[in-house]
Design a protein that fits this description.
The protein is of the alpha/beta class. Helix content is 39%, strand content 21%. It is globular. Bound molecules: nicotinamide-adenine-dinucleotide. Nicotinamide-adenine-dinucleotide is lined by residues 145-150, 154, 172, 174-175, 203-205, 208-209, 212, 223-225, 228, 231-232, 246-249, 280, 383, 385, 411, 451, 455-456.
């Protein structure tokens, strides 16, 4: 499939005529092309957005809400197509895209379509001398940069509130996974006025960087790696742009001795290996209280070894391929390092050898459990982003909190316990944007979402998204 940029309601290739290959991660074969856009294409998209921005900002919120709901309806009508494309592009199981990514994209539009209809800003009477009130106004043209692991979910998480608040958008999806953004552009092209939503494909260092540096884009919402987030902060700083950074994670998953073991094993496996461990929220550092280590790990190892590796389109596949060869190399290098450092690989650790012929060129890796890793290993610190979990015991809950907080990241953590007061205490003391208790990765769109430390700056979700995608102005009248 040949993807084209979507600028001002029209489809076009990059002005340079260059394209990038899009590879199917399950086979390693080329399956299409996408524009290798540069600053020229990005500027065209920004100009198109500026032409559309004023009228869109003045469109009544009820009408914006209606159009966003229409987008949600169309995604719902084509849900299976979206799930298939997401599976093809990312390598995630299609059932997962159908159960999580696509419904979430629909919810993102419906949620913000509803939210703007009930939005309130405050009014203040200062003893009869002054009347003050707030206006929430659009920021203008917003740059939305998204990663490859949850392409549709995260693009719509940004786009829906951005448009709802009356802004125009220039989206820059990951160059590795353009397919669902393209399908979304087909839907949007029928519903939104030209230029309100533009999508430019290309590499981060060219297309992404041009968007970040352009003075006509006062807001950047970025989800991706911490190193990229730092670059974006540096390059946007001279223009003091509004920034939201959702970055990497190395999340602790803590199993206490009083946990429901069956639920904790099941939840910890999902947390470690869903989407082949390529979710920023993955519980890649597993801490198990020493009293239950043997019984918990026996079940954990057995169930991990039984996870079905296979074709992302098959209903019984749990582990699809990694997104590309680079991600697999990074994971294999981490496994080799762990072995060199004296750790034990107790499950997996290899490229699977029994896959059907058509998947042999895919970027597959067995789900891998690493135990007895030295405390000083930098594998505890660095995000691997593959189907790998490192496991360690702890004696007391405060020890687990200490280990959890040693990370420079602070995106999320999970705690498995039946003791409610312990759960509250641990949740309070763990340094993370989100702490789950007896669950993982569940999130209502109303709650604040974001990271602390190197996992990001800012919060999105609910009112936080409305705040980020708007400027609050105070009007003060003398009476
Ligand atoms: P990445 O940082 O390489 O790329 C993300 C996006 O940024 C892509 O669209 C890319 O083209 C673009 N980009 C790259 N360099 C750029 C630059 N200099 N200027 C502007 N744009 C640039 O990340 P990735 O490999 O696509 O995604 C994986 C990372 O994303 C992981 O670290 C993961 O933890 C993180 N992530 C975080 C969250 C969260 O909510 N915190 C969610 C999903 C993924």
């Amino acid at each position: 499939m040949k993807i084209l940029n979507f600028i001002g309601g029209e489809y076009s290739g990059a002005r340079s005529g260059k394209f990038l290959n899009n590879t199917n991660p399950a086979t390693g074969e080329a399956m299409g092309e996408l524009p290798d856009s540069d600053a020229v294409d990005v500027v065209m998209a920004i100009q198109a957005a500026h032409r559309a921005a004023e009228k869109w900002a003045k469109t009544p919120s009820a009408e914006r809400s209606r159009l966003l709901n229409l987008i949600a309806d169309r995604i719902e009508q084509r849900a299976d197509e979206f799930a298939k494309l997401e599976a093809l592009d990312v390598g995630k199981p299609k059932w997962l895209a159908r159960e999580v990514d696509v419904p979430r994209a629909i919810l993102n539009f419906r949620f913000f379509a509803a939210k703007i209809l009930t939005e309130e800003t405050g009014g203040f009477d200062s003893d009869g001398a002054l009347v003050q009130y707030s206006l929430r106004q659009p920021v203008g043209v917003c740059g939305l940069i998204s990663p490859w692991n949850l392409p549709l979910y995260l693009l719509t998480w940004k786009l829906a509130p951005c448009l709802a608040m009356g802004n125009a958008a220039v989206c820059k999806p990951s160059e590795l996974t353009p397919l669902t953004a393209h399908l979304l552009s087909e839907i949007v092209s029928d519903i939104l006025p030209p230029g309100v939503c533009n999508i430019v494909y290309g590499r981060g260092e060219t297309a992404g960087a041009a968007l970040v540096q352009h003075p006509g884009v006062p807001l950047i919402s970025f989800t991706g790696g911490t190193d990229t987030g730092i670059k974006i902060t540096q390059s946007s700083a001279p223009q003091l742009k509004k920034l939201s950074l959702e970055l990497g994670g190395k999340n602790a998953n803590i199993v206490c001795k009083d946990a429901d073991l069956s639920a904790a094993v099941k939840g910890s496996i999902r947390a470690a290996f869903l989407n082949s461990g390529q979710i920023c929220l993955c519980g890649s550092r597993l801490y198990v209280q020493e009293d239950i280590y043997d019984s918990f790990m026996k079940e954990f190892r057995e169930q991990t070894a039984a996870l079905k590796i296979g074709d992302p389109m098959a209903d019984d596949t749990f582990i699809g391929p990694l997104v590309n060869g680079q991600q697999r190399e990074k994971s294999l290098a981490a496994i080799q390092q762990a072995t060199r450092e004296g750790a034990k690989v107790t499950v997996g650790g290899r490229v699977p050898e029994t896959l059907p012929q058509q998947l042999r060129g895919g970027f597959y890796l067995e789900p891998t459990v690493i135990e007895d890793l030295d405390h000083c290993s930098d594998l505890w610190a660095n995000e691997i982003f593959g189907p790998i979990v490192t496991v360690q015991t702890f004696k007391l809950p405060q020890d687990a909190i200490k280990w959890a907080n040693t990370s420079t990241y602070g995106l999320s953590a999970s705690v498995w316990t039946r003791d409610v007061s312990r759960a509250h205490k641990m949740a309070r003391e763990i340094q993370a944007g989100t702490v789950w208790v007896n669950t993982w990765a569940k999130r209502d769109p109303r709650v604040p979402f974001g990271g602390v430390k190197h996992s990001g700056i800012g919060r999105e979700g609910g009112d936080h998204s409305l705040d980020f995608y708007s400027e609050l102005k105070t009007v003060c009248l003398a009476t």
